[in-house]
Amino acid sequence: MSEEVDRNDPELKYLSVERNQYNDPATQAEWTQKRLVWVPHENQGFVAASIKREHGDEVEVELAETARGS
Q1: Residue 30 forms part of a structural domain
Q2: Full-prediction pTM beyond 0.85?
Q3: Residue 44 domain-assigned?
């Protein structure tokens, strides 16, 4: 079954990528500077982190702050 997608659906913004934002050189420079990575986590699957230092094959990361509901 092929269902027509309503591109004006306000909920579609949660499923689509704003390409202009990611193509912006300033945004790309910010991501490169932070050196963001995903790190496996025991309870949450993966969490965001930034690379702080590299020692040969080892990498030291700092976990990003995340909002958690109780």
Answers
A1: no
A2: no
A3: yes
What's the CA gap between 1 and 52, in Å, rounded?
48
Domain of 62? 35-70
Q: How far apart are CA 46 and CA 38, in angstroms?
A: 6
CB atoms within 10 A of CB 22: 10
Q: Is residue 14 part of a domain?
A: no
Phi, psi for residue 32 in degrees, rounded to 5: -65, -40
- What confidence tens digit (pLDDT) does each residue in 3-26 have? 677 777 777 666 655 666 667 788
Q: Please give the pLDDT value at position 47.
A: 87
pLDDT, position 61: 92
Residue 29 in contact with residue 43, Cβ under 8 Å?
no
Pairwise CA distance, residues 7 & 70, whole Å: 34
Domains in the chain: how many in total? 1
